[in-house]
Structure formats: structure tokens, C-alpha cells
């Protein structure tokens, strides 16, 4: 039997000047997992001469400051993500991360280890 979701839970696409690395937020992506290995390979294998833009996409957001949706559940952060992925984003110089799930819009200055890096005054993401 064909199950689309189980076959395509994470993948990468090269489109013109862009490399898209798409992760599955419903499965563990902490260091050492198969998904973490996939994400690292996806980020590491891009040819920045051909695809200078490296974009990470996922469904559930890793942390944000303006919506109470997760606060009602007791957390503003996705439990298995931010700390492990930040190292990869910095190492491979990811340009943009895009998420869905919460139906609100939020954008920030660059963030590293839950603090803004270029905004003034600096702020902290929950």
C-alpha cells in the first residue's frame, strides 16, 4: 500500500539559486537521529556557487514570541529542535528558516541561542 506521508517526510529540493531542506517536525531531530543526519547532509552538500541561498523549512515552529498558542500548552518552544539545529544553521550558514503550524505571522532579526543578533534593542525569543 502506498503511504505518501511515510515516504516523503523529509527531503531537499534545488531550484535555481535556492537549496530547500525540508524537515519533518513530527519526528525527533535531535543530534544522533536519522533526521538530524539527513538535515546535516542536506545543508553540507549544497554547492553554494550554484545555490547561494540555503533555506530550511519545517511545519512546527521552533520558538516565537508573539503567539499564545504554545503558551496555553505550557511552552513557547518545540521540545526537540532549537538547541540541536542552531549549531547546524550556524555551521552551514542557513539564510532563512520558514515554519507554519501557528496561523500567525512573525518575523525577527537573526537569532542565535534565543537572542537577537542584529536588532536594537536586543530581545529574547521564548
Please render the helix and strand layout as text.
Elements (H helix, E strand, L loop, with lengths): L3 H4 L3 E5 L2 E5 L11 H11 L8 E6 L23 H11 L3 E4 L11 E2 L2 E2 L10
Parallel strand pairs: 2-3, 3-4
Antiparallel strand pairs: 1-2, 5-6
Helix pairs in contact: 2-3
Provide the gyration radius in Å.
Answer: 15 Å
Written as H for each helix and E for each strand, in order along the chain, the element string is HEEHEHEEE
Largest sheet: 4 strands, mixed
The number of strands is: 6
Choose one word for the global shape: globular
Question: How large is the count of helical segments?
Answer: 3
Q: What structural class is derived from the secondary structure elements?
A: alpha/beta
Overview of the structural elements:
The chain is an alpha/beta fold. The protein has one domain (7-116). Helix content is 21%, strand content 19%. It has helices at 4-7, 34-44, 82-92, and strands at 11-15, 18-22, 53-58, 96-99, 111-112, 115-116. It has a four-stranded mixed β-sheet with strand order 1-2-3-4, covered by helices on one side. It has a two-stranded antiparallel sheet with strand order 5-6. A hairpin with a 2-residue loop joins strand 1 (11-15) and strand 2. Helix 2 (34-44) runs parallel beside helix 3. The longest helix is centred in the first third of the chain and has 11 residues, at 34-44. Residues 1-6 and 122-126 have low confidence and may be disordered.
